[in-house]
Amino acid sequence: MSTESLYLVKLEYKTGLVGSGSMVLQLAVDPVTGSLNGRANGAIQEGTQHSPTFTSSASGHMHATGLNGVTKVAAVTGQAVVSFPPPAIGSYLAPFTASFAVDNEWNGKGSFSVGDNTYQCQVSMAD
After folding, report:
1. What pTM value is reported for the model?
2. Is the pLDDT of residue 78 over 80?
3. Which residues lie across from 92 on neighbouring strands?
């Protein structure tokens, strides 16, 4: 019987560019099976006037690499609800994907896609 137990991780995805996307990915990690389940919240065009926001379920798997600089790689998918703030009120469904390659401190690189919008990001633990 394994002594490893379920734990939570909250990752922040940032591009550093105005008008680009950003996201926070909150996941429950099962280290025995590598399964990931959680939720993503973000903005498709952060910093722009009336930027669309999204929320999505997220599920997938994480794998250990055995490498020094990148110790974990993962990918999750889900269905996002993209919402427009006033004055353009409305929402639509879009496919969601995210991936990351990080070190033991959860710092690294990743990307996420909502519909046709894809962003390459720096990934780090969120506050």
Report:
1. 0.89
2. yes
3. 82
